[in-house]
Hints:
Layout: E1 2-10, H1 14-25, E2 30-34, H2 47-52, H3 54-72, H4 88-112, E3 116-119, E4 121-128, E5 131-137, E6 142-151, E7 155-157, E8 170-171, H5 173-176, E9 185-189, H6 193-204, E10 208-212, H7 224-237, E11 240-242, E12 246-252, E13 256-261, E14 267-272, E15 274-277, E16 281-283, H8 290-293, E17 316-318, H9 329-343, E18 357-359, E19 364-369, H10 372-378, E20 382-388, H11 393-398, E21 404-410, E22 416-423, H12 426-438, H13 443-447, H14 458-467
Parallel strand pairs: 1-2, 1-6, 2-3, 6-17, 8-15, 9-10, 9-15, 10-11
Antiparallel strand pairs: 4-5, 5-6, 7-16, 12-13, 13-14, 18-19, 19-22, 20-21, 21-22
Helix pairs in contact: 1-9, 3-4, 3-6
The structure holds flavin-adenine dinucleotide (FAD) and 1,4-dihydronicotinamide adenine dinucleotide (NAI).
Amino acid sequence: MSQAFDVVVIGAGPGGYVAAIRAAQLGFSTACVDDWSNAAGGPAPGGTCTNVGCIPSKALLQSSEHFEHAGHSFAEHGIKVEGISLDLERMVLRKDKVVKQNNDGILFLFKKNKVTFLHGRASFASASAGQYTIDVAGPGGQTLTARHVIIATGSTARALPLAAFDETRVLSNDGALRIAGVPKRLGVIGAGVIGLEMGSVWRRLGAEVTMLEALPTFLAAVDEQIAKEAFKLLTRQGLKISLGVVIKKVDVGDEVTVHYTDSSGADQSASFDRLIVSIGRMPNTEGLKAETVGLAIDERGFITVDGECRTNLANVFAIGDVVRGPMLAHKAEEEGVAVAERIAGQHPHVDFNTVPWVIYTSPEIAWVGQSEQALKASGRPYRAGSFPFMANGRARALGDTAGFVKILADAATDEILGVHMIGPMVSELISEGVVAMEFRASSEDLARICHAHPSLSEATKEAALGVDGRTLNF
Ligand code: FAD
Ligand code: NAI
């Protein structure tokens, strides 16, 4: 006995669950299958993002920031706090509660939008006469048929070939979010987004954090000026970051010893109580039985898609981390919506150039569009304007003045080509840059918009004025 659907979505991460909701909104009978289980074995839709990614990491970043402020910043505001201590168990329980709220929220949204949710692992069984047959193994086990399939199976953490994840000593993002006690010595291999966010959490809670990064350049994809400022501020906070290392060997016992060569080529070793390995993520197609239907997968494991997320199979689409492009929740969501609308005959478009990036360290780092080094490399003439938070009244009132906003605009047309920020709440401020770029605004357009005073967003306006060499408050 099988159930027939117009659309079956495989995976309920931010790509899959949003695609399923949009497909249902457009009038398609839609099922979404996801295999993530919570500690009790029940369904936990939301994928990596909700369960072991965006949401829990931001919950711990917030809690650890409160802890750091209570210990170090409140006194400056005239607030005396004595006898501060850490209840890590409670902090982790709060994080788990936030995750559960999100899992439950997605189940509610499925119900509200009449999406049939199945908890289990989906695999292709066959394809014939424009129909795909999909087996679902697990508690919701059954067979489905679909006219359209959207694959949103996400990604998994890449392990070092030398040291498999045991989630006790050698931790992926999963283990890094649930260390039972604050490690005295925490090693992090890979000073990318996860390394910096999770390294920040555990440093704030008291760990001595050492980061070993293969590339000779810190945050190589980020605008150089921003990356330089971030390196200065983060190392000043106590993150020890070594660049240009080559990991040679990892010994795992009661402690983890990493043998590596440093940037000068000299042999080094360092021992840690725990080691987070955050060296990137790999597309996940395990268990999908792609070969049964001849689904094309490239040499790096990504499902091959065109610019519209179409695979080599008719009416089969793939979105999110399992396909090319940035591994970001909001990119997955945009692709999910676009694919559902494409199935309905609409003509949506996802512009990767206006996908914002945020690193939730303190200060936060955010950007959209092209970096200054990319513009230089492409030879496109540009003008730059920047403004420091030190000269922003709201930042001074907050006591959070590190960082700056930088805007890059075409030298001839003044169209904004990139917005780069490091500073307080820039995860929120970057949206103004995204909107401006989506509307192909000029820096003058931004500079002429009235911004509330005092607000952090005035730094964006002032940076835009700076493109024309006429900041007012600096
Ligand atoms: P996933 O979220 O990976 O979801 C895929 C789902 O499919 C999973 O539930 C998986 O179990 C399920 N699945 C796989 N195969 C099958 C199958 N055969 N049958 C049934 N189900 C299956 N991005 C941001 O934009 N902002 C952030 O702040 C951010 N923070 C992050 C922090 C960490 C620690 C990590 C690891 C990632 C973070 N990301 C962040 C990245 C973000 O989590 C991913 O880009 C996003 O989750 C990708 O969504 P997706 O829908 O493609 O896949
Ligand atoms: P990453 O690509 O951000 O960083 C990995 C780092 O590890 C790189 O700097 C790389 O040079 C380094 N590296 C690779 N191999 C190494 C080795 N053998 N030894 C030492 N260093 C090595 O990947 P990360 O941090 O694992 O995160 C994966 C992805 O998840 C991110 O790229 C991002 O797409 C997403 N993410 C997004 C977040 C956000 O939006 N705030 C937060 C966390 C993750």
